[in-house]
Amino acid sequence: xxxxxxxxxxxxxxxxxxxxRSLTPEAVQGRTHIDVQTELYLEELSDVxxxxxxxxxxxxxxxxxxxxxxIPAKTGKDVGTQVEExxxxxxxxxxxxxxxxxxxxxxxxSLKEVMEEEELATLKDQQQAFEELRNYQLAEVxxxxxxxxxxxxxKEHRIAQQRExxxxxxxxxxxxxxxxxxxxxxxxxxxxxxxxxxxxxYFHDPVERDIESSFLPWLMSEVxxxxxxxxxxxxLLDSIIFDVAQKRSGRFKELEAQTTEASEAP
Length: 266
Prior knowledge:
This is Radial spoke head 3. The chain is mostly helical and about 270 residues long. Among the domains are: about 95-205; about 205-260. Helix content is about 70%, strand content about 0%. It has three helices and no strands. It has helices spanning about 5-20, 90-200, 210-265. The longest helix has about 110 residues, at about 90-200. The chain is flat, with a radius of gyration of 66 Å. The mean pLDDT is about 80.
């Protein structure tokens, strides 16, 4: 609590007088204004207001004692009676329905447990049969996949072999064509040279006519026969490869149909 309320009042009056008082003009250049007390009694000016704290302590709260139970006053008279054994309750006769219910419940629960055990055993057998069937199907699928992989590798190997044969045949045909072209070119070049030499009177070949009439036609016929045989062999090989490819395609389709039927079968 504040012990000096007069200080607060004086500060309030002072602020009111300063607010009403006319403002001092601005200081000239080179000088400054400062605050000076003009009251009769000087006092220390401070923004901190002097204060002190006070407190008090109360006693601890005491709980209310429990309210005693209300017990009404006893009225009337006490009387009694004597009950002999077996007059009100026969244990053997009264307990019989309870025993029947208990025994029935026990038998019913036992039958339920036996049925549950049989059902669990049946489910276990079915699960085992299903797992065996699934393992067999997986093994069969793996076997078919492996068989298909081997057939595919064999097919690729055969195709590579046929491509190599075709490549060699192409190279052979190119060599034969180059040889035939060279022979044809040389066969045309040689007579021209001989004709030119004969025309110029250098020499006269007595076998020239024999070569032109016998050897060169025979040579050309042999070359033609050889080329025809090559072409016939190539056509025959193409037809054999086509037939083999058709048979393999039919077998693959039959295998796929069998695989589809086996997968759709239960």
